[in-house]
Specification:
By secondary structure, this protein is mainly beta. Helices cover 6% and strands 42% of the residues. The chain has helices at residues 33-38, 158-161; strands at 45-51, 54-64, 68-70, 74-80, 83-90, 103-105, 112-120, 125-128, 132-149, 154-155. Strands 1, 2, 4, 5, 7, 8, 9 and 10 form an 8-stranded mixed beta sheet that branches. The chain is globular. The two termini are 21 Å apart. The relative contact order is 0.28. The model has no long low-confidence stretch (mean pLDDT 91).
Length: 170
């Protein structure tokens, strides 16, 4: 049997699904990160995976985001497009209140020292360290998966994005 791996993208994806053999589809969830990104506003942080307090968020990259600062290290994995990630060491890491989960949006450009710029493409992962701020930029559409803690701006649309019934037969 020949198997072919096909990578999806924001412009070309097929919604997959859970093939339930002898169980109930309600016991599983399935979402498609590209479908979620295609229906999201730029830089919305939509949870597509969750393990206790940890989440995987899908982010539609389009244009330039605002600056954000994480309360803990985060990891950005580019799934589609080319994404420029600008990093800044914060002069005042205290802009992120103690006890914050995930990251927070910062007004304007925060004070700090430029750390560098990462140009990442599909499969490239970038550390977004605590104590720094980051900004995403995409000249074209892109998709990033962000591993973080669920925060105040994590959007949970489980009922909208997850398969909850058996896949219709083609």
């Amino acid at each position: 049997m020949n198997q072919t791996t096909r990578f999806g993208s924001l412009r070309h994806y097929e919604k997959g699904g859970v093939e339930v053999i002898n169980d109930d589809a309600r016991n599983y969830v399935f979402s498609n990160i590209f479908e979620v990104a295609s229906k999201s506003k730029p830089y919305e942080k939509v949870a597509v995976g969750k393990n206790i307090e940890y989440v995987i968020e899908t982010i539609r990259v389009e244009g330039t985001s605002g600056w954000r600062a994480p309360a803990q290290d985060e990891f950005a994995l580019v799934m589609d497009g080319e994404v420029e990630i600008r990093l800044l060491k914060l002069d005042n890491p205290g802009v992120v209140p103690a006890g914050t989960r995930g990251s927070i949006a910062l007004a304007g450009t925060p004070a700090g020292r430029k750390m560098g710029v990462v140009k990442a493409r599909r499969g490239h992962m970038t550390l977004l360290p605590v104590g720094a701020a980051y900004q995403f930029h995409g000249a074209q559409l892109g998709v990033v998966l962000l591993q973080t803690l669920a925060g105040s701006d994590t959007i949970e649309r489980w009922a909208e994005i997850c398969q909850t019934a058996p896949r219709p037969k083609a």
